[in-house]
Amino acid sequence: MQCQIQTRFHRSITDDGVLSSRIIASPLKLLDCAPISDGAAAVLLCNENAARQLTDMPVYLTGIAQAADYLGLDEREALTAMPAVVNAATKAFRASGLTPSDVDVAELHDCFTIAELIEIEDVGFCAKGAGKARRSDKSRRRDPCQPERWIKST
User: Fold this and answer.
1) What is the pLDDT of residues 6-47, one digit of tens each?
2) pTM of the model
3) In order of start, what are the domains of the chain with their CATH numbers?
4) Which of 12, 46, 58, 152 has its CA at 20 to 30 Å from residue 76's CA atom?
């Protein structure tokens, strides 16, 4: 595995390295957790006419939603669910007329390895409890979640 110069950690990280990193809050280990750092992302939104001036292949936004929940884990009903993710996904899918099986690419916030597992279940990409098996299945040829990207490698 080669280290990318733009990454937060300037060293290669292997599966064994993640598994052998020190415990932070059981069962999460150091390399299960996002580093403290600043970052940003941007999406340019414009009308179709402006988009056509910029590219021959515009991407159309068909549904968008936002939801909020308790920040403190101690205030949540369950540690293995993110109601805000469920609410936002439900609203966005309803607005777009699409379903999770229609999604080609999904960028989920994987601040901790457990977060992405919970999110792919709560969005509806797999059943509750099936997130780990889905992410571990190397035979999956098409997985819309985090295509070859993880927060610690970007």
Assistant:
1) 666 667 778 888 889 999 988 889 888 887 776 677 788 999
2) 0.74
3) 15-153 (3.40.47.10)
4) 152
